């Protein structure tokens, strides 16, 4: 089956990409001598086997031994020379899959390519594989000397035709579309005396270069339309036109003419059909021509097979195309290869319609049907019917049936693996319940023991990955639920305390129970309520709002007349000596201030003025009330329940919850005076205003500003 060839081709590409990764694996211990590498090259089948892994493990240490092996052509007998050729060809392949594009490596490959006396198999290996070095290194630039060498080989008619064909393919693979290269390719294409194999690969190279210049297109059309030319060259020309994607009317009409000419070569007609599909020309004329060939069972099966594939490229949204492909698929009397192509075409354009899915399932489940057709039906189902348990059950039924054809079971397993890959990519969009349903649906695949080991392992790995995703989703959902519950609880808690803050000024019970009860505040308020009450200015003031009047009871503000104090009394700042009017020097209670003045100069009256004009919470304390300490004096002005939490009160005062005014420090004992000054120093953030007579003043400190009130002078 062609599908197997395609899989093997892509497997080789994958192996080439994995080679440098294998070389980094620490799990292999290998001596990298020339003898060891030669022995491994001789046993080398592919880089899955131990021999390949041993070479890969050497990495760049293998470069010199590989070069030595490539340059050693010795062999006394035919068998020895054959063995040497095999080993050297494998060495070239291995060398091009090591991350090294150094001049030394390039020159070795150039030497092999240019040496006509060397074995053609080794030269072909160098020509076909040298480009891998630059692909692996993600280097888009190719050495000019390499392109020049390939052109020299390609143009030399005396050289081996298979080597020249390889050079043409190499020029196409690197996409070298310089005028010189294109002209050389055209010269060989137009030379009918040249080898047909070389000319065919030349046409393909022009298609891969994607050089859509009129000159190239006309040259390819000339070859296509010349029935006297070699059929292999013509079908490659048709395919190249499809690769270029030229959809001009001339190209389309010429391809249609070849397709419709049943007297023409079947290979050429088939590639003309494929070219129409790749060009994407879906005009009614083209579609009808393709349908006519598809429906003609007397036509060549190769042509019809390519027609079915072309319709898969251009038939989307065309019911007549879907119906025609279904008719072919359902007709067991039709050619199996045509039916297989119809199955894959339906995968491209069927859009998962129930009719298409049911038709593919019917073929898959019919053990009497052709095995190849059933295999293609399984492959077609990998991309359609994704959300249908019926499709998965059918594929699992085939995989688990040991009596069924091994090829069909293999491709059914492949389809399941692909479906699981798609499902894994969509797990973020699936609910936990949907994931659980899919896992239960796929689990029977784990019980299959005799299916191809790679496919079975992929099935198991993908199913296990689904289960891990399910657990991750459950854990994520659990965490989200926990976060939501936690967030809701915090929100409710905040709202609860916000309500308490609102009720606080009006409810002594709320104040006593929740705010000034240390145990309740710490337990019910968690860790943040106490911090918020201490650090947020609004909340600090809110706690003292109910006590605003009692805190000022000793100030006797009801009987205070603002006109009785002299705002312009001079006051001198002790530190600087500057004299200013009293109301300018001390406009408000800010910082720590001691006002010194003789009796009768208005110290107390000024203090009462500041208290009355303050917008914040202020406590007014005669100094003699502070014998037991400032905190105790303040507590006496608050409700009794405040006394149960003096530390909280102290913390609030430290964080500037209230401003403090203390009048008459000279009237108290030295011990009280010392304690007051100590309180002021320890609460350096708090705004504190004090008054005293000159017979007692403390030593000035960095924080305490001392002003001396002078007598008012009348002019």
From TrEMBL:
Entries under SMART domains matching the protein: ARM, EZ_HEAT
GO MF annotations in UniProt: oxidoreductase activity
Superkingdom assignment: Bacteria
Alphabetic keyword roster: Antenna complex, Coiled coil, Membrane, Phycobilisome, Transmembrane, Transmembrane helix
Coiled coil (residue ranges): 449-480
Keyword Transmembrane: yes
One CC-aspect GO term: phycobilisome
Spans through the membrane: 481-503, 523-540
Name of a matching Pfam family: HEAT_2
Protein name: AAA domain family protein
């Amino acid at each position: 089956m062609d599908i197997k060839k395609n899989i093997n081709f892509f497997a080789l590409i994958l192996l080439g990409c994995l080679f440098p990764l294998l070389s980094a694996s620490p799990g292999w211990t290998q001596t990298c001598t020339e003898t060891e590498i030669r022995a491994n090259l001789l046993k080398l089948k592919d880089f899955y086997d131990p021999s390949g892994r041993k070479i890969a493990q050497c990495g760049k240490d293998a470069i010199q031994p590989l070069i030595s092996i490539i340059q050693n052509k010795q062999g006394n007998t035919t068998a020895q020379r054959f063995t040497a050729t095999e080993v050297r060809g494998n060495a070239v392949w291995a060398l091009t899959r090591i991350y090294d594009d150094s001049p030394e490596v390039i020159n070795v490959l150039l030497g092999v390519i240019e040496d006509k006396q060397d074995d053609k198999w080794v030269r072909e290996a160098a020509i076909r594989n040298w480009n891998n070095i630059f692909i692996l290194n993600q280097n888009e630039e190719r050495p000019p000397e390499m392109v020049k060498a390939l052109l020299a080989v390609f143009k030399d008619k005396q050289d081996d035709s298979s080597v020249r064909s390889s050079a043409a393919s190499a020029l196409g693979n690197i996409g070298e579309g310089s005028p010189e290269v294109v002209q050389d390719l055209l010269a060989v294409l137009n030379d009918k005396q040249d080898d047909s194999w070389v000319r065919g690969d030349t046409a393909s190279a022009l298609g891969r270069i994607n050089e859509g210049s009129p000159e190239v297109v006309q040259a390819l059309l000339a070859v296509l339309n010349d029935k006297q030319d070699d059929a292999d060259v013509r079908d490659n020309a048709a395919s190249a036109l499809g690769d270029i994607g030229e959809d001009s009317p001339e190209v389309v009409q010429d391809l249609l003419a070849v397709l419709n000419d049943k007297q023409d070569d079947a290979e050429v007609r088939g590639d003309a059909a494929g070219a129409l599909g790749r060009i994407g020309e879906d005009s009614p004329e083209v579609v009808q021509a393709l349908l006519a060939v598809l429906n003609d069972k007397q036509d060549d099966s190769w042509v019809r097979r390519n027609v079915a594939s072309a319709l898969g490229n251009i038939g989307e949204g065309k019911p007549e195309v879907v119906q025609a492909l279904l008719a072919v698929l359902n007709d067991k009397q039709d050619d199996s290869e045509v039916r297989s192509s119809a199955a894959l075409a339906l995968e491209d354009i069927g859009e998962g319609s129930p009719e298409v899915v049911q038709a593919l399932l019917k073929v898959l489940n019919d053990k009497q049907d052709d095995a190849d057709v059933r295999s293609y039906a399984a492959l077609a189902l990998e991309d359609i019917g994704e959300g249908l348990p019926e499709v998965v059950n059918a594929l699992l039924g085939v995989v688990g049936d040991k009596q069924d054809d091994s090829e069909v079971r293999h491709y059914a397993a492949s389809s399941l693996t692909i479906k699981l890959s798609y499902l894994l990519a969509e797990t973020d969009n699936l609910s936990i319940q949907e994931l659980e349903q899919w896992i239960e649906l796929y689990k029977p695949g784990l019980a299959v023991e005799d299916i191809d080991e790679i496919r079975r392992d992929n099935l198991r790995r993908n199913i296990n990955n689904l289960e891990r995703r399910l657990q991750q989703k459950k854990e994520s959902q659990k965490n989200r639920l926990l976060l939501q519950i936690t967030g809701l609880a915090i929100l409710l808690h905040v709202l609860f305390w916000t309500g308490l803050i609102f009720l606080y000024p009006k409810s002594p019970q709320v104040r006593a129970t929740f705010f000034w009860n240390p145990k309740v505040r710490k337990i019910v308020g968690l860790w943040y309520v106490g911090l918020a009450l201490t650090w947020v200015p609004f909340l600090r003031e809110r706690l003292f709002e109910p006590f605003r009047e009692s805190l000022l009871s000793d100030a006797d503000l009801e009987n205070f007349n603002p006109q009785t104090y002299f705002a312009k009394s001079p006051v001198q700042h002790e530190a600087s000596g500057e004299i200013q009017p009293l109301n300018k020097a001390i406009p408000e209670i800010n910082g720590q201030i001691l006002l010194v003045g003789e009796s009768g100069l208005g110290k107390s009256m000024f203090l009462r003025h500041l208290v009355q004009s303050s917008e914040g919470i202020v406590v007014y304390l005669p100094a003699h009330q502070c014998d037991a300490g400032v905190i105790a004096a303040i507590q006496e002005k608050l409700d009794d329940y405040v006394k149960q939490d003096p530390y909280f009160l102290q913390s609030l005062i430290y964080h500037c919850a209230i401003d403090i005014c203390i009048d008459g420090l000279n009237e108290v004992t030295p011990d009280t005076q010392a304690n007051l000054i100590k309180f002021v120093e320890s609460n350096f953030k708090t705004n504190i205003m004090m008054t005293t007579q000159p017979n007692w003043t403390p030593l000035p400190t960095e924080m305490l500003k001392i002003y001396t009130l002078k007598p008012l002078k009348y002019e």
